[in-house]
Amino acid sequence: MAPSTPIPILLVTANQLRDQFSAEKPWIEAMGFKAEPGTFCLLPSTEADKGIAKVLVGRPATLDLWLLGLLSKTLPPNQYTLASELTAAEATALTLGWRLGQYRFMRYKQDASNSLAELITPANADTAYIEAVVEATFLARDLINTPANDMGPGNLEDAARMLATTYSASLSVIKGEALETQNYPMVYAVGKASESAPRLIDLRWGKVDAPK
């Protein structure tokens, strides 16, 4: 049975494991968990129908973006919450790593219903930053993972136009034989044999005088 409240994820060192979890020691030892960085252990509830009580994760000296990346795909599809004290930067990094770890390429899959574990974003995490990075990274991964027969120059232009429309960016495209007349002869030479004309896509966002 899925728990009615989020399951806490605790980042623990070997010393904390020894000092704070004596009651769970037999189970922890049976699982072979020693709080090594990146390893994890699921602590069962004392109530048989409650499932997981806590998730322990070995805490490194410096928290890494990817510490929870694999865990986000491994844990059962429940709600989880970070129960350890974290700075805003740490909370942001760990939540971002969790979200990035859940990327799935779904373009050719009909059934996308497989649910994933959900991490409740900590109150001090930069939600806007996390969402922006996740959206950008997933788009880039989708473009890269799409086979070339479905991701030619025209498809890349479509993706660029979508971004330009969504984020009020400027877009210019030099296409086909115009590449030669506008001093891009090699771009044209490399791509002219394709059924989809070669093109140079220039996507710009932000103020011209903004720092670069």
Q: Would you kindly provide a written description of the structure presented here, covering whatever features stand out?
A:
The strands form 2 sheets. This protein has a 5-stranded mixed β-sheet with strand order 2-3-1-4-5. It has a two-stranded antiparallel sheet with strand order 6-7. The protein is of the alpha/beta class. It has 2 domains: 7-135, Leucine Aminopeptidase, subunit E, domain 1; 149-204, no CATH class. The protein has helices at 14-20, 25-30, 71-74, 88-100, 127-145, 153-167, 178-181, 185-191, and strands at 7-12, 40-44, 52-58, 79-82, 118-120, 170-175, 199-204. α4 packs parallel to α5 (127-145). It contains 8 helices and 7 strands; from the N terminus they run βααββαβαβααβααβ. It is elongated. α4 (88-100) links the parallel β4 (79-82) and β5 (118-120).
The CATH topology of the largest domain is given as: Leucine Aminopeptidase, subunit E, domain 1
How is the largest sheet built, in terms of strand order? 2-3-1-4-5
Which word captures the global form?
Answer: elongated
Averaged pLDDT, please?
Answer: 93
Instruction: Look at the structure and give the CATH class of the largest domain.
Output: Alpha Beta
CATH architecture descriptor of the largest domain: 3-Layer(aba) Sandwich
Number of strands: 7
C-alpha Rg (nearest Å): 24 Å
List the uncertain runs. none
Overall domain count: 2
Q: What is the CATH homologous superfamily assignment of the largest domain?
A: Leucine Aminopeptidase, subunit E, domain 1
Class inferred from helices and paired strands: alpha/beta
Sheet of most strands = 5 strands, mixed
Beta strand %: 15-25%
Q: What order do the SSEs take from the amino end to the carboxyl end, as H and E?
A: EHHEEHEHEHHEHHE
Q: Number of DSSP helices?
A: 8
Cα distance spanning the termini: 52 Å
Assembly type of the shown chains? single chain
Helical content stands at: 25-40%
